[in-house]
Design brief:
- Helix content is 79%, strand content 0%.
- The protein has 129 residues and is mostly helical.
- It has one domain: 3 helical TM bundles of succinate and fumarate reductases.
- Helix 1 runs antiparallel to helix 2, helix 1 packs across helix 3 and helix 3 packs antiparallel against helix 4.
- It is elongated and about 75 Å long.
């Protein structure tokens, strides 16, 4: 019995990289970043529970320019991931499934996540002055 010719799956070379593919990858990366950022939040709460010295040391670390960059990245990650969930919720309703709709939703996720993160930090800075 001769082997049957089976269809060959398309390889990565066949696909054109799109913004929605990038958003799928970014959704997974921001999920991991949110997990790590939440561990930072737990560490902050743990430092507060340990007492003033530990809390001051943690605040000094997170208040440095590197810590502020990490916190901004965490803020962006939260908003980006949230908007990705909203995007999938809209898709689950059957809306925005065409090529233009998918690209529009992906662009809104990119710019919306960045815009909301900047807005949140501007509001935070404004509230402290």
């Amino acid at each position: 019995m001769a082997p049957r010719a089976r269809p060959i799956s398309p390889h990565l070379e066949v696909y054109r990289f799109t913004l929605t593919m990038a958003m799928s990858i970014a959704q997974r990366i921001t999920g991991v970043a949110n997990y790590v950022g939440t561990l930072l939040l737990v560490a902050w709460l743990g430092a507060a529970a340990l007492g003033g010295e530990a809390f001051t040391a943690f605040n000094t670390l997170i208040g440095s320019w590197v810590g502020q960059i990490v916190l901004f990245g965490y803020t962006w990650s939260l908003f980006h991931h949230m908007l990705g969930g909203v995007r999938h919720f809209i898709w689950d309703s059957g809306r925005m499934m065409g090529p233009e709709g998918r690209e529009t939703m992906a662009r809104l996720q990119v710019f919306g996540g960045a815009g909301l993160a900047v807005l949140a930090w501007l509001l935070f800075i404004w509230s402290r002055s």
